[in-house]
Amino acid sequence: MQLTQSHIEELYKFTRQHYVEHYDVQTELVDHLANDIESIWVAQPQLSFDDARDASFKKFGIFGFMDVVESRQKAMNKRYWKIILRFAKEWFRLPKIILTILITLTFYYVQETPNAYYLYASIYGIIIFLEIFILLKNKRKAVKQFKKTDKKWMFQNIIQTNGIGNSALIMFYAFDFSMPNNAKNFLLMGDFRRLFSALT
Length: 200
Description:
This protein is mainly alpha-helical.
């Protein structure tokens, strides 16, 4: 026996009922279940679709699909950070390294200006604004896409989640930066000159 399109749709529904919300992970599981069900039917052709499906599902153990979901999430997180690292490396290669050096020198010499504190506060404010704007824009785009296709993608969710985390980190530093008596301002105000002197 072979699975029909109706059976495949039932398997997608089955994965959703077991808390697998991302379509790419659902597809991986459906493919695995479909192949296993057909193998079970070869050995036990008298079994119904539901019985063969349940027999296949039992092979995943007491935690069901959770181990597969966690494994997939780890792989996607690894892929995400590889992409981030690749983009970061680009800023240390020509021609972008020139811009990197110019930005570093700008922050280095701006220490001499009397309003350095307010300048850095403005920069952090702009960064936070841009982060929030981009996050809201991407979130709205993801919601529209979900309403249109009724599908969620794990990698897209990881990008959004890490983006929120990055924004939270920036906001934490900005808040810490606003406390003038905090010793961390040594780093947060970007005093590269004193830092360089301390290292040499």
